[in-house]
């Protein structure tokens, strides 16, 4: 039943070939470009007019028909290909479309013979190009069938409707009439299935989708009520008589005599060699063996964990710093979480926040608290006096603390916040605890002359440098750090001086009034009485609202290496220091005043804070030397390398980048998007090629540029259970290094860095210098190539621009813009009218 229609189609196709004059065995075929590329028979490339032949495997054609079905170009020739006896079929490229298509299949017996003898190709082409003779057409159906199928005009019917003669002229009354009330007034012809004629559906287009079977199920577990409980026990001891009986027993004497030789032998071996030493670690680390990846699974080992449930509840850690002189003491700044911040936190004294000090000696309690009027987003220890701490508040004010009176608390042998009990046998639940010492701030900037938005970064200037009122770097003869640099979200960077001004300023009445209204009383220590209510910025850099700085890095700022430093026994008294007059200051000409800034929009700005002068002599803030949108969102880290002062690491949510001073073409190194948000980054203190990147998923990446600049050499998973907020390394000694990691749950964790990460490889500094120089040269070469390509592109486009008609002048462009504006206004009016009609305007 299925083959009969195919034989009919073959007969029809044969008749068509006869009508067109095609030789028997030749079948025209249209091949698309996709099919040509699949069978490697591309027109004018694989087959040409001179070499038009291509042998195709019969099996490949059949597979294409099965795979692509009706889409295949060989589907019309399916039965012809199946009936062909040979394994290879000759495909001929018809350049002139002699038979109506671009290809044809030659299934004649002489096809392969003609291919094996190329000398007869010209005769074959002449024979194929010969004009076919006309033949008389033969009808395949009878004339009677044609007569039956033809449409003829049938005889027209004539109908006449008339009214009864009696009713002619009478009045007509019309009324509604329901046809369904009477079955005799209409005839219904419902549709029904005719069993005599049935059309079988041979092909149907339908779509299917395979989905996994779903099953709904439920389970129930028995829930037990949880409750807090405690127990107290005391050890059960033997009586004195039982102890004496055991000591005098023969079994104990025999046991002692049997194990004594073995114990003595073990003690002797321990004195000769350490039996607990790790021999594999003593053989050498991977860093010494050529800076290859280490074999340790975890390069960071958890050393200590800190948390204060009283002060860290619903808060996150925004900044972290190690104490410069007291080993094992670390301070963290706590801020409210992003979703819980309110305007009240920016008001003086409404919601106090704290900087918490922890110590390795007493990890269960906080050792010291620094109270502030609002959340502290950043803080730093003074490099000249570690007892002075400067912080940036959420309301834009700069806050100072003096912890000179509480140094013994941090160095004490007994932890703060606890009280020793004489009863050591049982717990004393009625014992009163002594609270953690709290230190109030000793100075705060004037609220009317400070940042108008939150302070996001703060740094101390070097002790040997200071900045004048005009923003010029001058020499600091006192060799004491007296100036602070801050940046805020109001688009400004401010310089602050802790010394007494030459002409003391009068306190503002508004500030004193604000103090009275807030109801807060705070005592200012003697060193900072001159800053009370009169502390204003010395110099300000304003980005004029174009950029919002978040993080910055200056060459004159202290590079905190977090090592134990030597400080003089006599700490400076800031109340005795004075700002020298401008004529006594020595200008430093060789000081680098350029700095990097990361903005809220992910831009990296390289600018100079020195004020320029125009032709009239007036000073103005210079424009940035370059501005690059390196990070798509807010920059969270801008940090200089402790080994190279001209190398800067910046991190954003998507990737990190490494920059070099003076290179304006772009970053030397830029990472790819790894799928996880980068939250913070920091350099290693002992290896120039190593730095750490914190992630939002709690993982920590360790990068080594000498090994790979594409992927990290190690990824430490599950460092924290939430988003990493801060990273701070610290070197206790040459063989002891720690890394502090904080998260947005207020938890601080200290990890010990293994030898592979802190022990530098051979000539690592010189190798890194060569690496940065190579990246710099490559970047410049790439930028020159881009400029060359752009020039070539412009030269290639110039002839096209010359061909443009001269009628396109500036006037026509203006006319087109006016027409577009008119259309837009008409559209807005139409939109307004429609919204008014439907009541939405």
UniProtKB/TrEMBL annotation:
<dbReference type="GO" id="GO:0045504">
    <property type="term" value="F:dynein heavy chain binding"/>
</dbReference>
<dbReference type="GO" id="GO:0060294">
    <property type="term" value="P:cilium movement involved in cell motility"/>
</dbReference>
<dbReference type="InterPro" id="IPR036322">
    <property type="entry name" value="WD40_repeat_dom_sf"/>
</dbReference>
<dbReference type="GO" id="GO:0045503">
    <property type="term" value="F:dynein light chain binding"/>
</dbReference>
<dbReference type="GO" id="GO:0036159">
    <property type="term" value="P:inner dynein arm assembly"/>
</dbReference>
<dbReference type="GO" id="GO:0036156">
    <property type="term" value="C:inner dynein arm"/>
</dbReference>
<keyword id="KW-0963">Cytoplasm</keyword>
<dbReference type="InterPro" id="IPR050687">
    <property type="entry name" value="Dynein_IC"/>
</dbReference>
<keyword id="KW-0677">Repeat</keyword>
<protein>
    <submittedName>
        <fullName>WD repeat-containing protein 63</fullName>
    </submittedName>
</protein>
<dbReference type="InterPro" id="IPR001680">
    <property type="entry name" value="WD40_rpt"/>
</dbReference>
<keyword id="KW-0853">WD repeat</keyword>
<feature type="region of interest" description="Disordered">
    <location>
        <begin position="1"/>
        <end position="31"/>
    </location>
</feature>
<feature type="compositionally biased region" description="Basic residues">
    <location>
        <begin position="1"/>
        <end position="19"/>
    </location>
</feature>
<dbReference type="InterPro" id="IPR015943">
    <property type="entry name" value="WD40/YVTN_repeat-like_dom_sf"/>
</dbReference>
